[in-house]
Amino acid sequence: MKVAPEIIAALCRKRAPDVLTPANWEGTPLDKVQLLWGIAGVESSFGFNCSPKHEPGYCHGGRYFDFERTKEWGCLAHCSFGPWQVMFAHFPLSVSPLSLMWETDGQVAADVCLRGAVSVLNRAIARGVRNLGEIVVAYNGPANEAGYASILEACLAKPMPQSAAEVAT
Ligand SMILES: [Zn+2]
Questions:
Q1: Distance 72 CA to ligand 1 centre (A)
Q2: Is the torsion defined by CA of 76, 78, 95, 2 positive or negative?
Q3: pTM recorded for the entire structure
Q4: CA of 18 to the centre of ligand 1 (A)
């Protein structure tokens, strides 16, 4: 499963205004477009690998196991999805895992995924994150903060392709 980087970039520009502005941010102001772009870089190599990824912590016996979602979707309920690899548990109940998977050029599914990613980020921002390290922990958990942060730094620096016109608003 792949989504073109031009589509990823256009979706970042489209959804960045939905990201809350952190109230207590330290240092260089947060560039929201770049943040969404950088996370897509870490999570899927800017759309190159968007396949669902099964996370054992959400499966049977895991600490995040959800009986109802599992009854409905089986192991699809234990996966992260899309260019931003958002855990299924972080989407509203109305979102089907099937809607998060490939169709046509992947644009619609990627946008649903990105809205899920923005809501994860906004919950963290509402709690008062002050820097990228705290965003990393909120997005990816406390394990491997330094490793994730250094890949994120590299991805934030990658230029974004143009051609926003291809993505319908
Ligand atoms: Zn499972």
A1: 12
A2: negative
A3: 0.92
A4: 31
